[in-house]
Amino acid sequence: MAARPLVARQPNERLQALIQEAGCSNAGLARRVNMVGAERGLDLRYDKTSVARWLRGQQPRGRAPGIIAEALGRKLGRTVTIDEIGMANGKNLASGVGLQFAPTVIGAIEQVCELWRSDVGRRDFLSGATVASSALVEPSRDWLITGADPQVARTAGARVGMSDVAAVGAMTSALVDLDHRFGSGHVRPVLVHYLNSVVSGLLSGAYRESVGRQLFAAVARLTELGGYMAVDTGQPGLAQRYYIQALRLAQAAGDRAYGGYVLAASMSHLAAQLGNPREIAQLARAAQEGARGHVTPRAQAMFHAAEARGHALLGDARTCQAAAGRASAAMDLVEPDTGDDPDWIAHFDHAYLADELAHCHRDLGQAEAAARRAKEALDGHPESRARRRGIGLVLLATAQVQLREVEQACHTGTRAMELLASVRSSRGAEYLDDLQQRLVPYGDEAAVREFGARLELQAA
Fold it and tell me: Could you give the 3-state DSSP secondary structure of residue 207?
């Protein structure tokens, strides 16, 4: 019988580099790994010889790679993944990174930090990935049925306090303002770098229970913004991963209201952009159910408006009207300047609601109502919402096309084009392209030809 050929192992240079960076001996790493294993109920008995074998390329079995990564992460004061220690065992982590609603807080930290690291490290990361409807709906089911995380406090790593949480919140506010003014194309690289270089270290630090909950809440908000910016730069496959992780971070924060917001404001809008109307309504209803009793009337209005969008795209005018009525009724209960609303929903005012309802009327072919709601939205949106005003103008132009007011539609569309030229937004460009397609049947008219020529010139 022929001898079985031996498979030559390659030295694990990644692990070697991390051990050197951590200033750890082989015996010291083995002790740390055994300690982390004991915390997880495992009786590990690794020693310096075990570490030497790993460095020669041996792959430990079971949960050991994750425990080794955790041990090194604690020493380095940041999250370390199994890919970073060279123990991914040849798996293509990028294809599935960020799609899991992790069952544990530790798993959630590792998942989201891997997502940020992959996003920074590869400029083409998931740029061509598609979004499966199930990948949007399944995390909402996990969120609905998963109980609260009993503990998020950590004792290893650099101390994290409320000043760090406040810094994340301030950075989020600054990035939101820049995004509204200039579009995500200018801002998203800054956000992703901050998440990977600063926020990952905070999540991997040491914090009390109360600080940890607020940290997760702040990071959930910033991660959701990262998803929104991925949508605005034409990367829906990346956006869904950010949204799933934002939902998981909100769960760790114990914030059911914000979890509902991620479903209704983020995931459902992504489903709308991708033309999955049934999933829009499902996600909005999941938000309503899972956040029941935890949200203010303003948030309720947004949740119901999101559901209305789904029914409109399905062509169900009666159910859409009922959901829109609930949204309007909830908005009527909002008392301004009471301070009851959290920051993440404060922007949803009557103008935003009118914007949502204008989309509904457009999709149902109710042109007069769509034009009325679009004008209402434009009257309410301040000049600082450049992208939102541009999209509102396109909505109005679309309604004017439906009313066969073609020359007026081209005039309105040109105003939208000029405004959207000041922001780098894939969403704005998609709205303008949709308007141009609706104008195709009127291609013989001079106004339409002029609008098309200007649009091509701007895109060049």
Answer: strand
